[in-house]
Specification:
The chain is α/β, with parallel strands linked by helices. The chain is built from twelve helices and 13 strands. Helix 5 runs parallel beside helix 7 (183-201). It is globular.
Length: 355
């Protein structure tokens, strides 16, 4: 079987695999460049790149400068396709988007909120805009808004299902019945919405599915149902090139199925994480002391938050997993070894070809 390419606007990736953006500092230049070198699309997560002890203005400046540094480092290691993921909930989201575009990034992915104003920030049509959605309704709202306000449509849609890691676009009730909101059910609805704007703008709008995709067989299934590609994040954590600490990766390797739990994030969204000492202690303590000289997340209610999510994620990145949060997809427990990105992608492509 010939492996299908993934075309997004004027960009063509050799393989239909996008590495999902993982914060805080999980997907940086080392991982991103390795994926890009194998023909996929590597995604830098822009969240949490500043010093948490910095004052607000210094923090935002550091986030911007460190994002630029990661873009430069990724480009030094790869001539492949590099994207930047920005959370709509970030208070400095606009600044990060402008910085990425100024550095020549041609793929901007935005989730954790509806990016209704995204085209206003980017007048360059060569920059491809990919909103991340969890339903046909969200896709319809974004595409209709962009069409009416900006006479522009998306260059691709990332459809993230309920089995993804990190923050999720589903209610707690919906997550209790994932079979009703599976990618197999959601994808046809999003494809139906997208077709209206494909016809109007006279071009393909690829839908890229994400959340729970683990094997090449999963990729094949999604492609057979009309997806143009897949986004995978969890599988890339236990690669040699992933930038997180060994302790972070070890938590994945040791996780059992029952350890993958749904939590309520301070951001106000449900999330999926590994139930570790940090979360168990939090259940007992109820709330940790929070010192926040700025608001990195506009949706975070500091007075009500049980912990600082940025600090918890950063602790895990550095290896202090006993005081850290570890986001993971539903299938993280299935990972049993650390491999190189080259080995992982070769395995996925072999399975895809066989399927």
């Amino acid at each position: 079987m010939e492996i299908p390419k993934l075309k997004i606007g004027g960009i063509t990736a050799d393989i239909p695999i996008v590495q999902g953006g993982m914060g805080v500092r999980v997907s940086l230049s080392s991982l991103v460049s390795a994926v890009a070198n194998e023909g996929g699309i590597g995604t830098i997560a822009s969240v949490g790149l500043g010093d948490l002890d910095a004052l607000e203005q210094e923090f935002e400046k550091e986030c911007r400068e460190n994002l630029i540094k990661e873009i430069h480092k990724a480009r030094e290691k790869s001539n492949g396709h590099i994207a930047v993921n920005v959370m709509a909930a970030l208070s400095n989201a606009d600044d990060l988007i402008k910085a990425a575009v100024n550095e020549g990034i041609k793929l901007i992915m935005m989730g954790a909120g509806l990016p209704l104003r995204l085209p206003r920030l980017i007048e360059d049509d060569s920059v491809n805009l990919l909103p991340i959605v969890s339903s046909g309704r969200a896709a319809s709202l974004i595409l209709s808004t962009w069409d009416k306000r900006y006479e522009r449509t998306a260059d691709g849609i990332i459809l993230e299902g309920p089995l993804a890691g990190g923050h999720l676009g589903f209610s707690l009730e919906q997550l209790k019945q994932p079979e009703k909101y599976s990618l197999d059910i959601l994808l046809p609805k999003v494809l139906e919405v997208v077709k209206v704007y494909e016809d109007k703008y006279g071009r393909k709008i690829p839908v890229i599915t994400a959340g729970g995709i683990f094997t090449g067989q999963d990729i094949a299934r999604m492609l057979s149902k009309g997806a143009s590609g897949v986004q995978m994040a969890t599988r890339f954590v236990c690669t040699e090139e992933c930038d997180v600490s060994q302790e972070f990766k070890q938590a994945y390797l040791e996780a059992e199925k029952e350890d993958i739990n749904i939590i309520q994030s301070p951001v106000g969204l449900p999330g999926r994480a590994i139930r570790n000492k940090f979360l168990k202690d939090l259940e007992i303590k109820g709330r940790l002391k929070i010192r926040c000289p700025y608001r990195c997340l506009s949706a975070c209610k500091v007075s009500e938050a049980r912990y600082c999510i940025a600090l918890a994620l950063l602790n895990s990145y550095f290896g202090d997993v006993d005081h850290g949060l570890i986001f993971a997809g539903e299938n993280a427990y299935r990972i049993n070894k650390i491999v190189t990105v080259k080995e992982l992608i070769a395995e996925l492509l072999a399975e895809l070809a066989a399927a």
